[in-house]
């Protein structure tokens, strides 16, 4: 499972196999509601979607769509999202592909 982690203010991506943690190569982060929705619609290999509480509360239909697609959705604090986001004002949703 690919997971986003933030340790000592150093964002990164790691993968967990039977309690061992290894770095993932070839995975990337996509940001934004429209881009992630398009990736899901076109059956891209979206492994995990991270959303802030505010985004989740204001986009219930979209979250339900992702749940129906059997995607993994995890909550992330706004402050953590800001650390890994490439945008100045993150929209509240990122995904790992």
Low-confidence stretches: 13-24
Across the major sheet, the strand order is 4-7-5-6
Q: What is the percentage of strand-forming residues?
A: 25-35%
Structural class: alpha+beta
What is the count of β-strands?
Answer: 7
Mean pLDDT rating? 79
Order of helices and strands: EEEEHEHHEHE
Helix content percent band = 25-40%
Question: What is the end-to-end distance?
Answer: 11 Å
Rg calculated over all Cα atoms: 13 Å
- Number of DSSP helices? 4
Oligomer: single chain
| Major sheet size, sense and barrel closure | 4 strands, mixed
Can you tell me about this structure?
The strands form 2 sheets. This protein has a 4-stranded mixed beta sheet with strand order 4-7-5-6. The chain has helices at residues 33-41, 53-58, 60-68, 78-84; strands spanning 2-7, 10-17, 20-23, 29-31, 48-51, 72-75, 93-96. Residues 13-24 have low confidence and may be disordered. 32% of the residues lie in helices and 34% in strands. It starts with a strand and ends with a strand. With 97 residues, it is α+β, with helices and mostly antiparallel strands. A hairpin with a 2-residue loop joins β1 and β2. It contains 4 helices and 7 strands; from the N terminus they run ββββαβααβαβ.
């Amino acid at each position: 499972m690919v997971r986003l982690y933030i340790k000592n203010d150093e964002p990164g991506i790691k993968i967990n196999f039977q309690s061992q943690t290894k770095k993932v190569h070839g995975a990337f982060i996509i940001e934004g509601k429209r881009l992630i929705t398009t990736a899901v619609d076109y059956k891209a290999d979206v492994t995990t979607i991270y959303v802030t509480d505010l985004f989740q509360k204001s986009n219930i239909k979209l979250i339900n769509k992702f749940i129906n697609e059997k995607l993994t959705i995890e909550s992330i604090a706004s402050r953590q999202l800001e650390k890994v986001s490439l945008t100045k004002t993150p929209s509240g949703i990122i995904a790992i592909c």
